[in-house]
């Protein structure tokens, strides 16, 4: 939950370092993190291993916090499941007293995603308004956006055809958050925004919670700055080969 703000364990630090090594060749343009300590430490560990952007500012946002679990916070998962069973409900959709509903979590995710889309559009508009500017991305080296996916890729992976498509990225944003929150965000992508998923993805994989430091990668296209109809492609979901 979000009411228990504990640091990473020793295992958590090892996992964060592993994720940092895995992503060390990816040049991020922005980094956002939940403002809870465990995600702050994870984001810092990832950037600390990065070859391009160790000094990039991490921006903390409360909209990225884990779901609030009310009276169940800080207690074992078995307690939450027992509460749900007593209430005659399934665990993922059950809201403990004082907790957030899934709709409330999804609203936070929607609000933050729309903020990211506005940010990307503003970046592009600023670049086009500069004298003599073409596109910020037109001179971008494909090697700045090298993604380490191996056998978890969809056909939409940037750079999969000689690196040429990498240069179309105007923003490459790292978001560090939490398992239950991210599952709701991905659900919003799929159900509300018709996100294209990898062909080999199963329903159970789609509904599962990411392992700690699992990586999901999405390509977002905003044609002509249209914020209302983002085209979203999932390259990989809950990638954990670095673990």
UniProtKB/TrEMBL annotation:
InterPro entries xrefs: His_Pase_superF_clade-1, His_PPase_superfam, Phosphoglycerate_Mutase
CDD domains found in the cross-reference section: HP_PGM_like
Residues that bind substrate: 38, 66-69
Keyword Hydrolase: yes
Biological-process GO terms, alphabetical: negative regulation of glycolytic process; regulation of pentose-phosphate shunt
GO cellular component, one term: cytosol
Pfam families named among the record's database cross-references: His_Phos_1
Keywords for this protein: Hydrolase
A GO molecular-function descriptor: fructose-2,6-bisphosphate 2-phosphatase activity
PANTHER family: FRUCTOSE-2,6-BISPHOSPHATASE TIGAR
Descriptive protein name: TIGAR bisphosphatase
Record gene name: Tigar
């Amino acid at each position: 939950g979000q009411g228990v703000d504990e640091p990473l364990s020793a295992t958590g630090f090892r996992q964060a370092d592993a994720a940092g090594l895995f992503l060390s060749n990816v040049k991020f343009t922005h980094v956002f993190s939940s403002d809870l300590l465990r995600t702050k430490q994870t984001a810092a560990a990832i950037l600390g291993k990065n070859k391009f952007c160790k000094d990039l500012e991490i921006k903390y946002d409360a909209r990225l916090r884990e779901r609030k679990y009310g009276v169940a916070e800080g207690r074992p998962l078995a307690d939450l499941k027992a509460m749900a069973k007593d209430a005659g409900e399934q665990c993922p959709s059950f809201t403990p007293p004082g907790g957030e509903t899934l709709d409330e979590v999804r609203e936070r995710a929607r609000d933050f995603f729309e903020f990211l889309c506005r940010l990307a559009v503003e970046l592009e508009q600023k670049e086009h308004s500069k004298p003599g500017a073409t596109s910020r991305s037109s001179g971008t080296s494909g090697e700045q956006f090298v993604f380490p996916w191996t056998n978890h890729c969809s056909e939409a992976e940037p750079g999969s055809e000689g690196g040429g498509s990498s240069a179309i990225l105007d923003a490459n944003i790292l978001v560090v958050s939490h398992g239950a929150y991210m599952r709701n965000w991905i659900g919003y992508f799929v159900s509300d925004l018709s996100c294209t998923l990898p062909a080999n993805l199963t329903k159970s994989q789609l509904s599962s919670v990411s392992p700690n430091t699992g990586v999901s990668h999405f390509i977002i296209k905003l044609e002509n700055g249209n914020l209302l109809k983002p085209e979203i492609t999932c390259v990989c979901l809950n990638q954990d080969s670095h673990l």
